[in-house]
Amino acid sequence: MKRTAAFAIAWLLASACTGNRSSGITCPAAGASAVTAQHEPNGSGGTSNSSDGAVQAAAPPFPSGTVCNASGIPRTPPVTIAHLIVVLFENENVDAVIGSRLAPYISSLASQCAVATAYQDDVFSGNLVSLPHYLALTSGSNCSTGLERTGNGCITSDADALVQTLATPSIFSQVASWRSYQEDMPKACSALSGRRYAAKHNPAAYYRSLSSCALNDLSIAALQCDPCTTNTPCSPERPSNAFTADLEADTLAQFTFITPTLDNDMHDGTVTQADNWVRTYLPLIFASRPYLRGEVVVQLLWDEQTTSTFGGPIPNVFISPYVGAGTTSSIPINHFAVLRSWEKAFGIVDYLGCASGTPPGGAGTCPADSTADVRAALGW
């Protein structure tokens, strides 16, 4: 685990401002200004003196303005966590996001918090489409037994959940409580794509044994975000929906999964559009009571690299008041290792599929980095 204040220069800045490969959006030429890390307000690092005079990191509740631990003094995270919020984005290479002037807010979070520089797009030996990656991340495979294309009930296409589902358990069925918030979904736990919602980006809808899906897989209104101008709040600037209500009422589930619309998740929209989406929502999380109590971990993840590339690193940011500012890890990890880290953080010992090192049913071979210790590497 390495910490550096100059993390943003670890990757090249993205080049000119162009629309996402499938959005059809062309933005005006962007200026050449570099990304500047936005550090926590004064006092957010927090230190205290023990009875013997030794300086120690502040304990929760943390002061207002805390994002990650900028004190320079390590904080030991709890053995198990109360709440995990995962936001999943689409199809980008690292240098298009982290350190890019097109994504200044996400890049500032990367500088303030933690990034796995070897988070590999390697859960499959072939370059499969989006949905199998979502299923791998949440259940340890894309098959009911086996992995990839070898086994039974394997999902290798992006077809809606009306025509294909998995029989396996998932992180949703493992945790004590869960909520999935899907932007612009036509109805709760919709098996059919519609409007700017894509069922293939809603993994909860594909687990046929998940009887609580209609209750916990909820639609939230889509934000309207500027695709070209950075540091611009979306509309509405302060969203009011089921997620923000749970955040404000201090009723977050143990596991929260959020999918923006196709416009806001970098699939059809621009990197800047998604950055503005993050800029609108994340401060609400950081200001919440459970976050300042040190009970919330936030993870910004991407399903895979761009469509034309495969096997290399994908963007990611791991955020918690316990994470040291500028933490980076070069230990190879993948979606399976991240799933394992979620289970471990919730005190779950029955790891699913390749998170255990073996595909469901025992047939096939998982990648070598599937059981790496993500929590220890990144300090959350």
Helix and strand topology:
Blueprint: E1 2-3, E2 47-49, E3 55-57, E4 83-89, H1 104-112, E5 114-116, H2 130-139, E6 145-147, E7 150-152, H3 171-174, E8 178-183, H4 213-216, E9 217-220, H5 242-249, E10 255-259, H6 271-286, H7 289-292, E11 296-302, E12 316-319, E13 327-329, H8 335-345, H9 374-378
Helix pairs in contact: 2-8
What class would the helix/strand composition place it in?
Answer: alpha/beta
Note the overall shape.
globular
* Beta strand count: 13
Low-confidence stretches: 3-22, 30-56
* Strand arrangement in the largest pleated sheet: 9-8-10-4-11-12
Description:
This protein is an alpha/beta fold and 380 residues long. The protein has helices at 104-112, 130-139, 171-174, 213-216, 242-249, 271-286, 289-292, 335-345, 374-378; strands at 2-3, 47-49, 55-57, 83-89, 114-116, 145-147, 150-152, 178-183, 217-220, 255-259, 296-302, 316-319, 327-329. It has one domain: 3-Layer(aba) Sandwich (Alkaline Phosphatase, subunit A). The protein has nine helices and 13 strands. The strands form four sheets. Strands 9-8-10-4-11-12 form a six-stranded mixed β-sheet. Strand 6 and strand 7 form a beta hairpin. The protein starts with a strand and ends with a helix.
